[in-house]
């Protein structure tokens, strides 16, 4: 765990978590940080706890002592969000100290009670404040459904620091550089990619609420954004706000100028057409990614689809339906409410077909509203004329996605 000073009386504690499935699902290849913040006036508040998964909150207490904060002196536990990655240590804290007050929204209060049996809670509403003394005044600003219904921002008025919890967060472990102005260009890119992965895995379903939360942050004249996961933005908080606005656009059909081929093939018939489509993309100079299902992790799959302006779905018929790993992937993308993508499908069948019907069902069930070029299906191996139809489809997709590209 690392300890960092953000401003006088404001500290960050951060630890890298690796080798876990985030939320029990997402294989986060590059880890994630859990960040916690301490604000000290005459009274002391801790905003979100960093421990919950490893069952060693003593590490947190030791680190608090090292920055001169006696854990027993903590008066307020501010729970921006009840998800246990931020709050899992409350019960343990109760064992060493009994007279602290939990501060959270009404929706969080209900969960803090049901998950941890806590009842010493002060419920806050939009604009409520807490004066810690020595000029440190916190205000509270609910941002519901980012990522749970209970979530809020905490804002420190003196330094204009926004403790944004899951909002403006990213996956990715942090080395020595935890502030935006310290990041190398490679690290900036790393956290953008990991930010997209985080957005797609954790936030995409809540895009309408994320957009409202961005607007709320803009009303607060923020100087520093201190999220619950990922780097702190003290030089240019506008950068992560702009990034999040763009990620929200990605979830609504925009994307980077690249195509992702989401594909699977049993005996290589569809794969022949995939290779042909690749040769067209190369010829046309279009950047593309390939996701072979089911080999790709779900985390990487959702992230890559989210950021792409064009999607090629290449999959055969299997037992009268779409090849299952590709159907599963599309269902997951649909559940994440990634809508409006420009897309094109092709695939092989043996006798009846059926993949196309299931694709339509998946799109309809999840209200994905993807804009598809007419699909190309071929019996067995693709013939010359099938490949020509694939080429025409790829060219039409390149054309269609142009209006969806954002930098
Ligand atoms: C387990 C299995 C189930 C299949 N089910 C169907 C089917 O219901 N309808 C159909 O038209 N073809 C079906 N096929 C045939 C495949 O769609 C066909 O072999 C196709 O060429 C496979 O393309 P691929 O080599 O890209 O996987 C099935 C093939 C397999 C192996
Ligand atoms: Fe969360
Ligand atoms: Fe979180």
From TrEMBL:
Task: List the SMART domains.
Answer: Lactamase_B
Q: Which domain of life is it from?
A: Bacteria
Q: What InterPro entries does this protein map onto?
A: Flavodoxin/NO_synth (IPR008254), Flavoprotein-like_sf (IPR029039), Metallo-B-lactamas (IPR001279), ODP_dom (IPR045761), RibonucZ/Hydroxyglut_hydro (IPR036866), Rubredoxin-O_OxRdtase (IPR016440)
Q: A single GO molecular function, which one?
A: FMN binding
Q: Kindly list any coiled-coil regions of this protein.
A: none
Q: Which residues form the Flavodoxin-like domain?
A: 259-398
Family, according to the entry, reads as follows: In the N-terminal section; belongs to the zinc metallo-hydrolase group 3 family.
Name of protein: Flavorubredoxin
